[in-house]
Structure formats: structure tokens, C-alpha cells
Write a structure and sequence with these properties.
The complex is a heterodimer of chains A (209) and B (240).
Chain A: H1 2-13, H2 25-43, E1 47-49, E2 54-56, H3 59-70, H4 72-87, H5 108-130, H6 136-164, H7 168-176, H8 179-199
Antiparallel strand pairs in A: 1-2
Helix pairs in contact in A: 2-3, 2-4, 3-4, 3-5, 3-8, 4-5, 5-6, 6-7, 6-8
Chain B: H1 17-20, H2 23-39, H3 43-60, H4 65-72, H5 76-90, H6 92-115, H7 118-128, H8 139-169, H9 176-200, H10 208-211, H11 224-227, H12 230-236
Helix pairs in contact in B: 2-3, 2-6, 3-6, 5-6, 7-8, 8-9
Classes of the chains: A mainly alpha (209), B mainly alpha (240).
Amino acid sequence: MQPTGETTTESIGDRRPSSRTRWDATDLSLVAVFAALIAALAIVPGIPVGPLGVPITLQTLGVMLAGVVLGPARGTAAVLLYLAAGLIGLPVFSGFSGGFGVLAGPSAGYLLAFPLAALVAGAFARLILRGSARFRTGLLFLGCLAASLLTIHPLGIAGLMVNAGLPLREAVIVDAAYLPGDVVKNVLAAILAVSVHRAFPRLLGGRGR
Amino acid sequence: MRGFGSTLGLFVPGRGFLYRMPLAPKATASLACALAVVVWRTPLVAVIALAIAIGALTVGARIPPARIVRMLAPAAPVLVILAVYQGITQGWVRAFAVVGGITACLLAARAVTLTTPVQVLLDGVARLARPFRRVGADPERFALALSIMLRSIPYLAGMFVDIRDAARARWLQRSMRVAVTPLVVGAVAYAQRTGEALAARGLGEHDDGARDGAGDGVGVGGAAGDNARGDAGTSATEPS
């Protein structure tokens, strides 16, 4: 089915704004299945941490994986689909929660940061995978770490300040509790991404996605 | 593979006026509940929202109180920690307002998903996404993606549990890598199989493929694309 997607892109591309790439059925199901993967990783019980009990789950691992495995566009779409499913009330967030109520909870900032994190991690991953194969795991790890430090942590801290009424200093301290786990998850995401791209070389890189 | 489907909180047949109510007012009420709780963080609003949510579940869907408590069990650790922290730092009244409000929102959302068949929910989402068509969104494909996602969650969660058990049996439970690699590789393979199955049925391709006469050889994107969305989930995404 891969060539089908390419002919579609080329034949319609001249009439359509190029900002919107055309996805074939496989792209669509990759997006959907990765949204499901984030959900599956999120609902397997997590460990509530810190005074506010924002739980450590593998949810962020799923978000990073969506970015580094699918690339920026499809990865962001997968995370957005996951968030949309959760917000309309399906219990796919950690702790089986769901619905607009989570936007009132202390972890709202983290949730809203996820699509941005996938976008940044995916952009890094595309660059890295187009380059040489050396140090790929290390570079992917740095890309994931940069993505989480640039998006998840600042927005998470903002969420803690707004929704839990913490002052900035305390919010930073609470947020710091997630850093070690984050580093581990980013290492894992990098290792997994290398394995997955070795198993499915045409998934990303060299195909303009 | 374990069945995670029932724990997902999706439609369970039953009786009560919530089952007969159309989706729009139910979803609006649930959204209003969340908005009220976010905008006014007072104990009174929390009490009203809780009363409405619990009332809707017990009267409208005839769900026994014990099951309502069980619904909250997975979220309980987070809620308790949040309540204790808020109580100590900002007073117990405030703690009740925040935690009670969040609990009410969770229950209200669950009341909607429990009493609405999945297909109706998906159609509602597609209708809701229709205004975004102007900016290039495709509500039908969005709903299709959502239905594939919903059917994949139990499969993937079951696979995750199976792989963890297998790793434990080989004394490898400490290695997260061993536990997650097969899951992700399996997810990609599953997605590609699903994509092939969709393409074979002419689903999931862009709609203009059909409108342009599909001159580019994507014949499958044609006539079947619009009408057969309903059975995409049942046939194409069955876990194999």
C-alpha cells in the first residue's frame, strides 16, 4: 500500500496547498493505533508521586514514541487523537479518568503539552534518521530530552500553578520529581525507536514525512 | 490476552432515562458540569455537580451505588493525595471544592459514555467536527480513526500484560526494554495490517479521491469510502 500513497500525494499535490500531506489508510491506522498505544500505556496502573499525586505512568513514553516513530505530523496527530478521545469522556487518561474535568485537575498542563512534545521530538527524529547511523540512539535520546524539557515541563509547571495554586518555586520542585523518570523514559524511547525503525525501515525518513 | 474492554467504561446496555436521551443534551450537561467546576471553585458548586452526576447515574442509568464507588477506584489514589495536600495547605473546604468537583466531572463523563452506544458516540463526534471541514479536516476520517483507536486499546493493553507476564516468567521483569519493545513493534505491525485491510475495503482514503474520479489509480478510495465506515471496526481491526 505504500506506493499507492505516493501516487496520491503526487497527483493531487499540484492542486492542493502542500502544507497538508495526504495520508493513506496505513497512515491513518498508524495514527489511530499509536493513540491507542498511548492509552494502553496510560491505563496500566501508574504510581502517584509528589504531594499532588500526578501519577508517573508510561503515558509520556507513549507520547515520545508517537513522535520518534511516526515523525512530527503523524505523531502529533496521534497525540491529538488521544487527547480528543480523553476529552470527550473516554477514560483513556491515567487512572481511567476522562472528560473535560481533567482540565481542572493538576495534570492539565502536562496533557496539553503532549502534542507539542510529540511535534518537537518527531522533528528531531526525522532530522536524526536522515543523517548517519552513528550515535543514533544517543542523539534520539537528546532529542526526546530536549522535547520534554522544552514543552512538557514548562507547561506542566504552569498547570500546577494555575490549577493547584502552587507558587512558582514549589511548582518547580514538584515538577522536578518527574525528571528522573522522564530521563529513563526518554532513554527507553530512543532505544525502542531504533529497534522499530530497524524493523520497519520505511516508516520514517527519506520519504518526506 | 486479557479483556480490558469492560474496564474501558464504554456502553453497557441497561434501562433508565439516560439511555433514551439523545447524545447532545447529555454531552452538553457533562461539559457544563466541567465548566462550572473550573470557573467557580466553591464547595456549593461541587455539591451541586456531585448531586447531578450521582443522581444521573443512579436514577438515569440505574447503576447501584457500589458500582459508582468501584468506578472511582482507579482514580482514587490521585484524588486522595490531592485532597490531603489541598486540605493541609489551603483548608479542607477548598480541598472539598477541588476534589469534589473533579470527581463530579469524572462521573458525569462516565455517565455519558456508559449510556451511549459507541457508534452513536462516534457519529456525534463526527458531527461535532463538521465545522472544521472548512479548515481542511475530514470528520469521517476522524471518526474512523477514533473507532480504530477504541478497538485497538483492549488488544494493545492485553498484549502489554501478556508480554509482561512472559518477561516475568523468564526473570526479566526488571527490564522495561524487554517488556515494551515487542509491544511497540507489535503495534506498528498491527497498524500496518489494519491499514492494508482498510485499503482493501476502500476505507480511510481521502474523499476527494472519489470526487476527482480517482484517476490516479487509487480505485479503492472510491465509492465504498463513504457508506461502509460502520463495519470498518468490526471486520478490519479484529485482533488476529
